[in-house]
Design a protein that fits this description.
By secondary structure, the chain is of the alpha/beta class. Helices cover 31% and strands 19% of the residues. The protein has a 7-stranded mixed sheet. The chain has a 5-stranded parallel sheet with strand order 10-2-1-14-20, covered by helices on one side. Strands 5-9-6 form a 3-stranded antiparallel sheet. α1 packs across α14 and α3 runs antiparallel to α4 (122-136). The relative contact order is 0.18. The structure holds flavin-adenine dinucleotide (FAD). Flavin-adenine dinucleotide is lined by residues 7-13, 30-33, 38-39, 53-56, 241-242, 271-272, 276, 303, 305, 364, 424, 428-430, 435-436, 463-464, 469-471, 474.
Length: 497
């Protein structure tokens, strides 16, 4: 029986662990937090459970990519998901126009919903959606199709590496419609002139295919993955992070945990931020050029979050997410601190037997780490009064925007807690509190593609920094990582076949 030690029990580490366990490996996962899940963790405040870093799941529609992976792992039937409203899956508010726009599901629903506001653009919208689907059809792993093991990104459509904003502009010159087609930009850390069109296309296609929400908390999904590992004889060590990775002659000899447990295996997978990994290793473990290259990759932005307990019967449950944007031109401007908050996302997580009214709401507002730089050496609960005052001020600013969407919203709030980029950094160990890992830049695509195979022979990488982030992207990278050990197409043939 081959063995593997996985550092990080988040989405990436757990998917790698579950798939390798199912393939007969003895799996040991090392997680620094007391619970597994990373971005799938939840926490309880004021008697309510809140998801921390995973509010929406994509790829779970019938035949969807993640659903097929979950089928293979045998956990689909035990998942508790609620599909968003197919007629209005997302709602966008442009403050400068005081106008709401509703987005429908499915290729036709998406086009119809936007053509209702822009009838003269129907043909352009159809061409745009066709191009998005055409582009995503080239990504082998997204379609769970065997590949030749080469890097297909460069060989596919010539639009792949256009900036996303330029790709959209090929189909319409209407600035409002351009912004609407890019409304998911804060869900992939979009940057004007930088974010590659393929990132935009994949996220857009997945949302058009339909999004779901976790009923009763995203941590249940983490527990299902952890269950697969345990069922196959694996171990998950929680509250005992990796403290050292001993590397000699480009070979990992062992992982030492915070409580001095020494773990040895045939293979090692790092499913934490690569910068965090470097801190656990001897300085020369990797070739210096590799470390220099990785260190120079910018992270995608972080966020300021509000977790709200709502007064009973005060605010209706919304079976879609809402997006606020100050102005139609702001969709690519979330990385401009002087204009904060440029926009936000509001959602009401569903309960078991969800009724007409929401019991809680989560508001996520993109924010740069530089905003909290002055407290970077502090830890949770000990950041000082000035930090707490700063958070209160930011929450007030955010709620002023929500009032514009929902007059009287503030009076619906019973209790409120907030989280900053520092909270995200300290809970997940995500560098600078980044939401989505390394930022993708089509002008330097080599910097955005971190291979899962490393110069250390028995060490592999996984997680959101390697490729795409999120509920669909991270499991796909987990397939790449596992196949680097199991052999090309080993899993894809089983899952997709
Ligand atoms: C606020 C927020 C909202 C988001 N919303 C969504 C969404 O709605 N939909 C979506 O698809 N994506 C969303 N994302 C992105 C998504 O959460 C991430 O892409 C995903 O969780 C990344 O998975 P990962 O395994 O790479 O990292 P993580 O899930 O962060 O897992 C890393 C794990 O490693 C552990 N770790 C770190 N250091 C060590 C160590 N030394 N030893 C042991 N363990 C260690 C951490 O505790 C953590 O459990 C959101 C992210 C954030 C922050």
């Amino acid at each position: 029986m081959k063995s593997v030690v996985i550092i990080g029990g988040g989405l990436g580490g757990l998917f790698c662990g579950a798939m390798l366990a199912k393939e007969g490996f003895f799996v040991q996962v090392v997680e620094k937090n007391v619970t597994v899940g990373g971005g799938l963790q939840t926490f309880t405040r004021f008697g309510e459970r809140f998801d921390t870093g995973m509010h929406t799941a994509v790829g779970m529609s019938h035949g969807g990519t993640v659903r097929r992976i979950c089928d293979y792992l045998g956990i689909t039937e035990r998942m508790r998901l609620k599909d968003v409203d197919p007629l209005c899956s997302d709602r966008i508010f442009f403050a400068d126009q005081q106008q709401w726009y509703e987005i429908g599901n499915g290729r036709k629903g998406f086009v119809d919903s936007l053509a209702a506001y822009f009838p003269e653009e129907r043909e352009n919208l159809t061409r745009y959606v066709d191009a998005v689907y055409e582009m995503t059809s080239h990504v082998d792993v997204l379609n769970l199709r065997p590949s030749d093991g080469g890097v297909s990104l460069f060989a596919s459509s010539q639009d792949f590496l256009l900036p996303a904003d330029a790709f959209i502009a090929k189909f319409t010159d209407n600035p409002t419609l351009q912004s609407l087609l890019a409304y998911l930009s804060p869900l992939y850390g979009g940057r004007k002139g930088c974010t590659p069109a393929y990132v935009h296309a994949i996220l857009t296609m997945l949302y058009i295919e339909g999004a779901s929400r976790f009923v009763g908390g995203s941590d249940r999904f983490a527990e299902l993955l952890a269950g697969v590992i345990r069922e196959h004889g694996g171990n998950i060590l929680t509250g005992d992070g990796a403290a050292w990775v001993e590397v000699n002659d480009r070979h990992v000899d062992y992982v030492l945990t915070e409580s001095n447990r020494k773990l040895q295996a045939d293979y090692y997978i790092s499913a934490i931020h690569p910068m965090a990994l470097f801190q656990l290793m001897p300085e020369k473990a990797f070739p210096p050029a590799f470390v220099k290259r990785v260190t120079s990759i910018p992270n995608s932005y972080s966020a300021f979050c509000l977790f709200l307990k709502l007064k009973p019967g005060s605010f209706r449950y919304l079976n879609f997410s809402e997006y606020y944007l100050r102005g139609q031109g702001d969709i690519w401007c979330f990385d401009q601190p002087d204009r904060w908050p440029v926009g936000l996302m509001l959602m009401t997580p569903p309960e078991e037997n969800q009724g007409d009214f929401a019991s809680k709401a989560i508001i996520t507002v993109p924010m740069l780490f530089s905003e909290v730089e002055r407290w970077k050496d502090t830890r949770v609960g000990r950041r000082g009064d000035d930090y707490l005052q700063w958070k209160d001020g930011k929450a007030t600013q955010v709620l002023e925007l929500v009032e514009q969407m929902h007059p009287g919203f503030r009076s619906c709030i019973e209790r409120m807690d907030t989280a900053s980029p520092l909270t995200i950094r300290d809970h997940y160990g995500s560098w600078e509190g980044t939401l989505y890992g390394f930022s993708k830049d089509c002008n330097n695509i080599a910097l955005s593609q971190l291979p899962v195979v490393t110069k250390i022979r028995n060490l592999f990488l996984s997680g959101q920094c390697c490729n795409l982030h999120g509920f669909c992207g991270v499991p796909l990278t987990a397939i790449n990582t596992c196949e680097a050990i199991l052999g090309v197409n080993h899993l894809v043939n089983k899952i997709g076949g």
